[in-house]
Amino acid sequence: EVQLVESGGGLVQLGGSLKLSCAAAGFVFYNYGMSWLRQAPGKGLEWVSNVGSGDNYTSYSASVKGRFIASRDNAKNTMWLQMNSLTPEDTAVYYCARGWSGTYSARGQGTQVTVSS
């Protein structure tokens, strides 16, 4: 069974930082590109970042580029999203997903990130 479990969300003040984790199980992690997605209250699902299967390639949406850093450790079946300089516009449920380019074959249950002003 494919499992993706996010953790690390919480409440943080404007300008603060959080680091999200995604633990993967039930599939060969290093074979898949992975993504971070988010959904803000009342809005649709938004792509945030990709991490290539070989962990060297990353890409980011314009709204987070320069503030967020995605990474992964294939030996630990884990990926992370370091989020810096957070603003209230970053408030959302954050998901890790298997796949990229808009095609996702699995998604975790999400972790809530709330940024207060």
Q: Topology of this structure?
A:
Blueprint: E1 3-7, E2 10-13, E3 18-25, E4 34-39, E5 45-51, E6 58-60, E7 68-73, E8 78-83, E9 92-100, E10 103-107, E11 111-116
Parallel strand pairs: 2-11
Antiparallel strand pairs: 1-3, 3-8, 4-5, 4-9, 5-6, 7-8, 9-10, 9-11
Summarize this entry quickly.
By secondary structure, the protein is mostly beta strands. It is built from no helices and eleven strands.
Overall description:
Helix content is 0%, strand content 56%. The chain is built from no helices and eleven strands. It has strands at residues 3-7, 10-13, 18-25, 34-39, 45-51, 58-60, 68-73, 78-83, 92-100, 103-107, 111-116. The strands form two sheets. Strands 2, 4, 5, 6, 9, 10 and 11 form a seven-stranded mixed sheet that branches. The protein starts with a strand and ends with a strand. The model has no long low-confidence stretch (mean pLDDT 96).
| Percent of sequence in beta strands | over 45%
Largest sheet: 7 strands, mixed
Order of helices and strands: EEEEEEEEEEE
Number of strands: 11
Distance between the termini: 40 Å
Regions with pLDDT < 50 over 5+ consecutive residues? Answer: none
Gyration radius (Cα, Å) is 13 Å
The amount of helix comes to under 10%
Give the count of helical stretches: 0
Shape: globular
Structural class: mainly beta
Arithmetic mean pLDDT = 96
